Amino acid sequence: MGAHLVRRYVTETDTEPDPARKFEFDPQFGFAERKEREMVATQEQMNLAQLPLEQRDFCAHHLLKLMKCKRDHWPNFLACKHEKHDWDYCEHQDYVMRMKEYERERRLQLRKKRIEAQAQAA
Amino acid sequence: MRTSHPLIAVSMAIVGFRRWAQALSKGQGSGISALLSGSRAASGAAKGNLPGPYPKTPEERAAAAKKYNLTAADYQPFPDQGLGYGDYPKLPDRSQHERDPWYDWDHPDLRRNWGEPIHWDFDAYIRNRVDTSPTVLSWSSMCKQLFGFIGFMLFMFYLGEKFPCYQPIAPKQYPYNDLYLEKGGDPEKQPEAVKHYEI
Questions:
Q1: If 0-12 CB within 10 Å is exposed, 13-18 middle and 19+ buried, where does residue B68 land?
Q2: In tens digits, what is the pLDDT along chain B, a chain of 199 residues?
Q3: Which residues, at least 6 apart from B196, have a Cβ–Cβ distance to it below 8 Å?
Q4: Max Cα distance, chain A (Å)
C-alpha cells in the first residue's frame, strides 16, 4: 500500500508509470496472441437504459440484467443478490486487469532501463 | 373613643394649609410634584451641573473635577481641538465587562455606582456591546497561530497537487472506441480504432 508512490516520487522516478499519461508499449509486445475484450451489451441497449457514461464499460450487460431484476422484484430489495454478485465480480475482474496492466507497464519500463544501462556499459 | 372637638380639627387643618403655602413659596420646585408635596424632585439638571467649556485655569479644572465627582489628579479633559467635548472628562476606554462582577454595584447590570462619571461612549461599553477585556493570548500570538495554520494547510494542498496519491492501476478501458459516439463524436467521421485486450 503506497509502495508505488515511494517508487514514483523517491526511488525510481524515471521508470514508475504515471497513469495520467498514455502507456507507451505495444499491447501485443511479449504476448504470442492476445484475446480482445468482448463487449456484450450493444450501444442501443445502453442508450435505452440511459446508463451514465462511467457505467458503459465491459460489464454493462451484467448491470442491465441487475437493473431489470430490481425493476421486476421491487419492493423486495433483497431479491437480486445473484445478479449483483455477477456484476460485482465482473467489475472486480476489470479492476484486477487494470492492476495487471499497470504492473506490465512498470516491468517493461524497468526492462527498457536495464537494456539501456547495458548498452551504455558496453 | 371621644371625638375630637370640631374646633381643634379645623385649626389643625388651617395650620397644615399654612405650612403647605410656606413650603411652596420657599421651594425651587417645578411641575406638579412640587405643587402637591411642596418639595422638589431629584431628577433634572440642577444649576451648575451641566458640562461647560474647556477649563483653562487650575481653578476651572478643580471646579470641573468636583462637578464630575473626580479627584483633581484623575480629572483629564479631552484635548481642546474644537471637537465640542468641552470640559467633559476623558475616562479610560474600558468596557463594563472588565469591572468586578461580584462587587455590590448600585446598578448591577451597568456595573456602576450612583454619581460615578459616565464615559463619553458609555452606550458602546455596556455589557451587551463592545468588550475590551484582555484576551487569553496576545494579538501577535493569535495571528501567528491562525496564519501559521492556514499557511501550512495551503502548502500541504500545494504538495498534494504536485505529488498526487493514486492507485497503482491503469486507466479504465471503455468499449466502442472509448465511447466515441456517446461522448458526442461526429457520427459521419470514422474515429481512430481503439482496441482493448484481456490480460
A1: buried
A2: 566 677 787 777 777 777 777 766 665 555 665 567 767 777 766 777 889 999 999 999 999 999 999 999 999 999 999 999 999 999 999 999 999 999 999 999 999 999 999 999 999 999 999 999 999 999 999 999 999 999 999 999 999 999 999 999 999 999 999 999 999 989 999 999 999 999 9
A3: A36, A37, A58, B173, B175
A4: 72
Q: How far is A36 from B198, CA to CA, in rounded Å?
A: 6
ipTM value for the complex: 0.91
Rounded to whole angstroms, the Cα distance separating A32 from B67 reads: 110
Three-state secondary-structure class, residue B170:
coil
Binding-face residues of A in 60-89 toward B, CB within 8 A: none
Backbone angles phi, psi at B107, to 5 degrees: -115, 95
| CB contact residues (below 8 A), chain B span 61-120, against chain A | none
B55-63, long-range: CB < 8 A, 24+ apart: B55/B87, B60/B87
Reading the block at residue B137, the C-alpha cell is 493570548
Cell of B65: 473635577
Contact at 8 Å (CB) between A84 and A66?
Answer: yes
- CA angle A22/A25/A28 to nearest 5° reads 125
B147 reaches A (C-beta below 8 A): no
Residue in B169, B171, B195 nearest the CB of A95: B169
- CB of B149 within 8 Å of a chain A CB? The answer is no
C-alpha cell at A6: 515511494
- Residue A44 forms contact with B (CB below 8 Å): no
Bond from prior residue into B77 cis (ω within 30 degrees of 0):
no
Cβ–Cβ below 8 Å for A94 and B172: yes
Which positions in chain B touch A35 (Cβ < 8 Å)? 197-198
CA B55 from centroid of its chain's CA atoms: 30
Structural Rg of chain A based on CA atoms: 21
